[in-house]
Amino acid sequence: MRLWIVLLPVLALAADSWTQPSLQIYRTATPIKVDGVLDEPAWMAAPVVRLREFPWWKSGEKERTVVKLLWDDQNLYLAHIGEDAHIAARHADRDGKIPEDDCFELMIMPDPANPQRYFNLEWNVIGGLVDNFRPNGPKQPRAARWDAEGVQVKGTYRGTLNDDTDRDQYWEVEVAIPFSNFKEFAPTPPQTGSYWLGNLNRHGGKTNVQFSQWSAGDTPVPSFHTPHRFGKLIFSGKVSPFDVE
């Protein structure tokens, strides 16, 4: 009993240690060509987000991921670079077995007033895309059919795909997601200064499977469907690469 009394405050502290993260998404001042090459000035000047959280880590190399986001009146843009010793990508079909590959996932909640209604879009380096809509939270079935329209996904990589006999370096992907896909659920384009909720997630293929996140989940087993742990995605009025002074 005395041991329980001593441990209780420690457990309570651990449960309350999560702080909701937030990031400022700059408006792009230059056109973005979605080609998997992050050479536009707007990307170079955009704020960096790193996936530092590995809430289910047990062993293996914690491979790093850098993410950037931008927006304009038509699209939300997302680009990421992930170091990866063994890049796996076999599924290019829509709504295929993308989670079996090295992949990246965006969770997004356009209306924070409805915290159980969110979307997830997941892709790999060869352009495979999975998209789903959860209208009633993670414990209820996803929508029978929801396909995002006009999403562009282009990737490049340094290494060899699906060959674990050598050591690869990294893969990068550039994505454009039209705001029109969410017009039934929130004002689109978003108003400057407003925010949506969401999360940035990555998990690996069959070799050195790791789960990394921007905002850490709190489930006992790996699950990215934790809307109560989503961070703030703030649509800033700041412009990249050059803000108005």
Tell me what you see in this structure:
With 245 residues, the protein is mostly beta strands. It has one domain: Immunoglobulin-like (Sandwich). It is 8% helix and 33% strand. The protein has 2 helices and 12 strands, in the order αβαβββββββββββ. Strands 1, 2, 3, 4, 5, 6, 7, 8, 9, 10, 11 and 12 form a 12-stranded mixed beta sheet that branches. It is globular. The N and C termini lie far apart (62 Å). The N terminus is likely disordered.
Characteristics of this structure?
2 helices; 245 residues; twelve-stranded mixed sheet; mainly beta; single chain; Immunoglobulin-like
- Give the CATH level 1 class: Mainly Beta
Largest sheet features: 12 strands, mixed
Q: Percent helix among the residues?
A: under 10%
Radius of gyration: 19 Å
| Count of beta strands | 12
Q: Which range does the strand content fall in?
A: 25-35%
Number of domains: 1
The number of helical segments is: 2
**Uncertain spans:** 1-14
- Secondary-structure element order, as H and E? HEHEEEEEEEEEEE
* N→C terminal distance: 62 Å
Mean pLDDT: 92
